[in-house]
């Protein structure tokens, strides 16, 4: 009786592991999809793209969604194969999702809508950086320290003084040469 119980227990354990792997894979996929959609939505938030860009962006998202669905079908097929006794390496599931994610991201990131949103994001970040820079300069000035503008001004004056000194030295050299002759 223990001979039949052991293979059954092994089978049950293997099926439980496969179910857990599939469940984890589906859960990770859903999290990745949610994060992807959220980041994409954040990237295009506060921007109203042209109709053509919007259409292209939606088409890119649709192609990305198709990639995810194809991956889900592949995972289901491989899970079925495993349940039917075929030896399936769990890393296949990871590889399916990674390949799917790469393709999905390419579909979305290759659109002009994504490029426009990215451009707006970079522009907003540059504006934020400038604002932070201005605030830090004001703070430094209020503390009585020289600001970057002060240092630049001193540097420019120093360069001008060096230029003038060089001109004076050249004139003196010419005068001395004239006096020696």
What does this structure look like?
The chain has 181 residues and is an all-alpha fold. The chain is built from 5 helices and no strands. The chain is elongated and about 120 Å long. The model has no long low-confidence stretch (mean pLDDT 81).
Question: What keyword list fits this structure?
Answer:
181 residues; mainly alpha; 5 helices
Could you give a quick summary of the protein structure above?
This protein has 181 residues and is mostly helical.
Number of strands: 0
Strand proportion, as a percent range, falls in under 5%
By DSSP (H or I, 4+ residues per run), the number of helices equals 5
- Helix fraction bin: over 70%
What class, by secondary structure content? mainly alpha
**N-to-C terminal Cα separation, in Å?**
125 Å
Outline the secondary-structure elements:
Layout: H1 2-44, H2 51-83, H3 91-109, H4 112-142, H5 148-180
């Amino acid at each position: 009786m223990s001979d039949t119980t052991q293979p059954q227990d092994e089978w049950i354990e293997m099926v439980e592991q496969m179910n857990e792997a599939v469940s984890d894979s589906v859960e990770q996929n859903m999290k990745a999809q949610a994060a992807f959609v959220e980041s994409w939505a954040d990237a295009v938030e506060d921007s109203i793209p042209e109709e053509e860009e919007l259409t292209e962006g939606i088409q890119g998202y649709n192609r990305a969604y198709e990639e995810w669905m194809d991956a889900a079908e592949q995972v289901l097929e491989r899970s079925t194969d495993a349940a039917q006794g075929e030896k399936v390496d769990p890393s296949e599931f990871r590889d399916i999702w990674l390949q799917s994610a790469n393709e999905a991201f390419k579909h979305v990131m290759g659109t002009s809508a994504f490029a426009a949103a990215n451009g707006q994001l970079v522009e907003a970040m540059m504006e934020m950086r400038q604002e932070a820079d201005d605030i830090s300069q004001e703070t430094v000035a209020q503390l009585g320290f020289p600001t970057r503008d002060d240092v630049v001004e001193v540097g420019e004056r120093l360069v001008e003084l060096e230029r003038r000194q060089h001109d004076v030295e050249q004139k003196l050299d010419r005068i001395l040469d004239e006096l020696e002759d």
